[in-house]
Amino acid sequence: MFEVRVPASTSNLGAGFDCFGLALQLYLTVRATIAPEWSEPCQVESTGEGEDELSRGADNLIYRAMSFAAERERLTLPCVRLAVHNEIPLGRGLGSSAAAIVAGLTLCARACGKEIRDDVALRYALEMEGHADNVAAAIYGGLTVACIDADGRALVVKRGWPPEVKVIAVSPDAHLKTSVAREALPREVAFKDAVHNLQRAALFSAVVETGAYDLLWEAMQDRLHQRHRQSLVPGLAEALATPRQQGLLGLALSGSGPTVIALARERFSEIGETIADNFRRCASRATIRLLEADNEGRKT
């Protein structure tokens, strides 16, 4: 029997499109039990978020990641039972698929008695997920900065996250597939918009390092993706336009959405309710979560 715990994550953090990832203390926990007497390769039992939506057989994303790693490493997977407890909402931009992929890659290594290094797991996860921001945060924890080199490899640096800065995640009662959110993006961007995001992504890194939190609001202003996605869910444009207020340091779309994240140091409940009201006015329920950064990443 083997167990792995993988954190949720938020990505982009405003201007750092497909670059920044931050692991959060919201978890996917999977226990794998070897069952050599079974005829089926996998059986899944799920509790928590999405328990009625997740596949209970071999097409479950966790097991698909196990199979992917086994194929790449030329390993033979035993039959397994997966007991899944998930705290991460599905299709909300909080890294649920990245967590499932990282869990599967990790469990494959444990089940087959094979070590898969972090950099190798990152490469496999990138192949499956298509972008490195969430999977890097899920593997390493903390704030991660990811870059894809000319050979398609992910280069990642892990940085610490200031514990005094909390994440308020406001998730409307609506799913948004990453593929749909990606299709909403333009194929070309204006030069001035690219420069705008470069400046603010660099500023964001400097702010986290130095603690100049009064600059976070400007550092999280994006021109590459948020305005193209804000019409996909009712209330999202209004939520992203929440005005600056006491305690609120910055605001952004979490990944491809529709969750909106706020970075804050105080007045957490008031800020969360203010953002959630924008969705409620559009007849959508919203869940507010106050989260801290996870600095460990996947853990067995």
Looking at this protein, list some descriptive labels:
alpha+beta, 10 strands, 6-stranded mixed sheet, 300 residues, 4-stranded antiparallel sheet
Structure, described:
By secondary structure, the chain is α+β, with helices and mostly antiparallel strands. It is 34% helix and 25% strand. It is built from ten helices and ten strands. The chain has helices at 61-73, 96-111, 118-129, 133-140, 178-183, 191-210, 216-219, 226-229, 236-240, 268-280; strands at 2-11, 20-34, 42-48, 80-86, 143-148, 154-159, 166-172, 248-253, 260-264, 286-291. Strands 1, 2, 3, 4, 5 and 6 form a six-stranded mixed sheet that branches. The chain has a four-stranded antiparallel sheet with strand order 8-9-7-10. A hairpin with a 5-residue loop joins strand 5 and strand 6 (154-159). Helix 3 (118-129) runs antiparallel to helix 4.
Helix-strand layout with pairing:
Elements: E1 2-11, E2 20-34, E3 42-48, H1 61-73, E4 80-86, H2 96-111, H3 118-129, H4 133-140, E5 143-148, E6 154-159, E7 166-172, H5 178-183, H6 191-210, H7 216-219, H8 226-229, H9 236-240, E8 248-253, E9 260-264, H10 268-280, E10 286-291
Parallel strand pairs: 3-4
Antiparallel strand pairs: 1-2, 2-4, 2-5, 5-6, 7-9, 7-10, 8-9
Helix pairs in contact: 1-2, 1-3, 2-3, 2-4, 3-4
Structural category: alpha+beta
Instruction: Give the overall shape, derived from the CA principal axes.
Output: globular
Write down the overall mean pLDDT.
Answer: 95
Low-confidence stretches: none
Helix content: 25-40%
First-to-last CA distance: 11 Å
Order of helices and strands: EEEHEHHHEEEHHHHHEEHE
Radius of gyration: 19 Å
Record field, number of beta strands = 10
Count of individual helical segments: 10
Largest sheet: 6 strands, mixed
Into which percentage range does the β-strand content fall? 25-35%
